[in-house]
Amino acid sequence: MSKYIGIKLVDATEMKLGEYNDFKGWTIPEDENPNTEGYMVKYSGNYISWCPKEVFETNNLEVNENSKLPSGVSIGPKMVKDFIKSYEVIERDGKTTIVHATLVNGFKLTEASSCVDPSNYSKEIGTEICLGKIEDQIWGLLGFLLQTAFEGIK
User: In angstroms, rounded to a whole number, what is the distance separating the alpha carbons of residues 115 and 138?
Assistant: First the structure.
C-alpha cells in the first residue's frame, strides 16, 4: 500500500451522526451513538461523507470566505497569527534577536534580526521584526496549501 498526502477544499457543516444518517435516509446501526459530534463533508463532485469532530478538526483548517476570489476563500491575518502555536526569543551578542517559532502543525520557523550599533538594540523591536518575517513565511505556506486544495495536483 502506498501513502498519499490529501489536500482538498471542502464544504463542511457541523452535524451529529444521527442527523447525517437521517439526511442520507439511513437507519443508524444500534452500536453507533446518534449524538456523536462531527461534520457532514461535501467534496467537489458532490461526494458527501461524515467525519467525527476530532478527526475533522485535526485534519482541516478553516479558511476565510472571500467572495472576490474564484475559490470564494482566502488566507486572512488572523489565520496567519493563529498558526503560530508558540515561540522562543533568544538574545545574542547584545545586538541580535532570534525567534524560533513552532506552528500548530509542529513545523518550526526561525528568523533573526540584528542592529549595527548595540546601543540601538531592542529585544522587543527585534522580536517584532522576526515575528513579521515568520508571518510572511506563513502567508506563503498557507497560500501554497490553499492553492493546492483549490486546484489539486496537476
Answer: 24
The cell for 92 is 545574542
Q: What is the pLDDT of residue 152?
A: 82
What is the grid cell recorded at 60? 482541516
CB 98 within 8 A of CB 109: no
**DSSP letter, residue 62:** -
| Run means of pLDDT, 10 residues per run, the chain, 154 residues | 89 95 91 95 91 94 88 90 97 97 97 96 98 98 91 80
DSSP state of 150: H
- Taking the C-alpha atoms of residue 130 and residue 134, their distance in angstroms, rounded to an integer, is 6
Pairing of β 73-74 and β 11-14: unpaired
**Cβ atoms of 49 and 20 closer than 8 Å:** no
- C-alpha span between 79 and 61 (Å, rounded): 9
What residue ranges do the domains of the chain occupy? Answer: 11-60, 78-151
Asked whether the whole model's pTM tops 0.70, one would answer yes
Rounded Cα gap, residues 105 and 141, in angstroms:
12
Instruction: Give dist(CA 23, CA 95) in Å, integer.
Output: 62
